[in-house]
Amino acid sequence: MTRHYDIVIVGGGLVGATLALALQQSSRRRFQVALVEAHSLQTSSEGPFTPSFDVRSTALSHGSRLLYERMGVWSAMAPYAGGISAIHVSEQGKWGATRLQAREQGLDAFGYVVPNAAIGRSLVASLEGWADLTVLTPAEAVSAESCPEGMRVSLREGERERDIVGRLLVLADGGRSSLAEGFGIASRHEDYGQHALVVNVSLSRSHDNIAYERFIDGGAVAFLPLASEGNDRMAVVWTVPSNRLQGLLSLNKAGFAEALQSQIGYRIGRIVQVGDINHYPLTLQTAQEQVREGLVLLGNSAHTLHPVAGQGYNLSLRDALHLAEALNEAVTNEELGGLSILNKYLARQQADQKRTVTASDGLIKLFGEKSVWLESIRQFGLISLNLAPAAKRRFAEYAMGVAERAPQWR
């Protein structure tokens, strides 16, 4: 027998789990939701969470913290969150620099660096006990197609195969969504010709909750403060030209630490330990369609940004909650897959998406070009941010991820 739901979410990662929780918290409607995830989800019953040295992290803006506070999950994430009380932006070998202080904005922190596993466990724990939510895991969504009732999704659960149907299908299954491709949804790709190296490091001194963003020849390097005993651990995202990748990966840990230190200098202290190195190619990817009848793309399925400004996940979080808000405004659940509701969501988020994507892409292109006049503009801009309060405040608001209109999904 085919099970029917109001909403089927494919992808139980951070974006999909956030949307599932927001829909259950809806104050106006009750939604029968299925959350489909190919991998087993960690729950709070599996013992206390102790982040390993090599855990991957996400930078949550101040705006994202406020949203997760409203959802009631921030308190579970907070013990693992490294606060960013100051941001130092510079260009290697140049005299211009910008220093932003959270206290100047009346805040303790611009944002927080939180292990992905801590965010995930907090969300999954909050999903437990909702009568209208069915979590299907491990379950692989093999294919999907339109049907008279909405969208039919074919699942593989071990040796078992079955179909489920939703009035609305939400794809939050990553940047290379085979289901989106199956619907013929193309994406625009712009290859930056770079790879991101992601690694955690320990320092010879405390990071003092300062984040460093330095633009270097062919890329950028960001050092983000992690919560740790002694506050001496930082998460690093180092973007390099693709033709340098293998040379850096061939270095031993001491050689890699030396190469990384040469990019940032000794303002952070000395790098004394380097963890496991992960890497991935960098592209700007945007889906040519984010909504169609009965279908929505979220997260990296909708847009994948360069990590230089750390705003990709924060944008996806706002997308998810604005979608929950629009669905909450449906008169009946039969309308959930209709274009009138989905276009309302997209209209609310298009300006936010355009602004965030353009700013992220623009930073890469501004600091990536080699010309004397652009170099002068960059240095003048970094100095001007220190001298012009209005410009500095606007830059800080971008770092804080404060949307012009916060979603109202409850």
Automatic annotation (TrEMBL):
GO MF annotation list: 2-octaprenyl-6-methoxyphenol hydroxylase activity; FAD binding
Domain of life: Bacteria
Biochemical pathway: Cofactor biosynthesis; ubiquinone biosynthesis
GO biological process, alphabetically ordered: ubiquinone biosynthetic process
Assigned keywords, A-Z: FAD, Flavoprotein, Monooxygenase, Oxidoreductase
Cofactors that this protein relies on: FAD
Acetylation among keywords: no
Domain (FAD-binding): residue spans on this chain: 5-356
Family, per entry: Belongs to the UbiH/COQ6 family.
Protein's UniProt name: 2-octaprenyl-6-methoxyphenyl hydroxylase
Gene source species: Hahella chejuensis (strain KCTC 2396)
